[in-house]
Amino acid sequence: MFIVVYEFEIKDGTEASFREAWLGVTKAIYEHCGSLGSRLHTSDRPNILVGYAQWPNREQWEKDHQLADERYQKARNEMRSCLVRSTTVYKLEVSDDYLQPDLASNC
User: Fold this and answer.
1) Within a domain: residue 106?
2) Taking the model in full, what pTM does it have?
3) At 28, which CATH number?
């Protein structure tokens, strides 16, 4: 599995718009490009969001994914309009995995 970590610095007052647009972009990439999905996180720094996307492998992530889908293009443009900057922070190969999708019941 291949993971990409992004840092997004967004303009003041755009978090709700960014998050909605991010979801539209993420759904389209999942549906049309073979990703395994993504998560978006708030951080302890104002206007900084962190996302990570999972892919089956680096090769799938590196493919030239030209999406003509109108909903994707609209969401992508909205997402970009909210950004101050976007940075790819890490490109990671999973070496060991014990991430559990279900909540532990004995905590």
Assistant:
1) no
2) 0.89
3) 3.30.70.100
